[in-house]
Amino acid sequence: MAKVTVRYWAAAKAAAGVAEEPHEAADLAEALRAARERHPGDLARVLQRCSFLVDGDPVGTRAHETVRLADGGTVEVLPPFAGG
Predict the structure, then answer these.
(1) Beta bridge partners of 4
(2) φ, ψ at 55 (rounded to 5°)
(3) SS3 for 6?
(4) Averaged over 72-84, what is the pLDDT?
(5) Cα dihedral value 82, 60, 32, 10, nearest 10
């Protein structure tokens, strides 16, 4: 298990009620599952629309189970943004 920091932005931050928090997970799917369990309610709905960066790299369309997390890494949770 890797110890990572999950950072929430915009609507994800509002739904989680925190800007960031630590999680232990082997892959992105596991980290997101833990986040949904820790913050039941709106966060699950918001996460369905988010994009993710893992250590600065876009996840894109890769299956979240295939995105391995490194100890000390960062997961950025990015809801859709309006504007330019």
Answers:
(1) 23
(2) 50, 40
(3) strand
(4) 85
(5) -10
